[in-house]
Inverse folding.
């Protein structure tokens, strides 16, 4: 909860400053927005290490092959990076670049998820 309050405070202050600066210096406002995003992500990074440790513990407890979990985590990471990159491109007024990034992210997610789909289908075939 404390981290989210910090994230909210940084985001609100960064947004207001960016909005005020955007009227006079749009390029600098974009950089300030990117800097704000960087600070917000930095605040959350510590929480992510706990999540990764929890996922590893759950995989070990369930005795699931890590080769099945790895594509899922990579796909989630691609989705997050795609969303952030497309948002930055849209904020910069580059909608074509944003659409291309989203398309590429979707295609990469499909490629990364293919081994997982293969493993599930193999498991279903063995059960039948």
């Amino acid at each position: 909860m404390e981290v989210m309050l910090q994230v909210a405070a940084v985001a609100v202050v960064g947004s207001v400053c960016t909005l005020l600066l955007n009227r006079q210096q749009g390029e600098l406002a974009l950089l300030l927005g990117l800097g704000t995003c960087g600070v917000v992500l930095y605040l959350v990074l510590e929480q992510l290490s706990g999540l990764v440790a929890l996922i590893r513990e759950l995989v070990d407890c369930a005795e699931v092959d890590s080769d099945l979990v790895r594509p899922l985590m990579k796909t989630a990471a691609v989705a997050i990076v795609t969303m952030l990159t497309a948002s930055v491109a849209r904020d910069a007024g580059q909608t074509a670049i944003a659409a291309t990034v989203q398309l590429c992210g979707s295609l990469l997610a499909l490629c990364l998820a293919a081994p997982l789909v293969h493993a599930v289908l193999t498991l279903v075939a063995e059960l039948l």
In short: Residues 26-62 form the longest helix (37 residues). The CA atoms of residues 9 and 24 lie 24 Å apart. The chain has a mean pLDDT of 88. The helical segments are 2-22, 26-62, 66-91, 95-127.
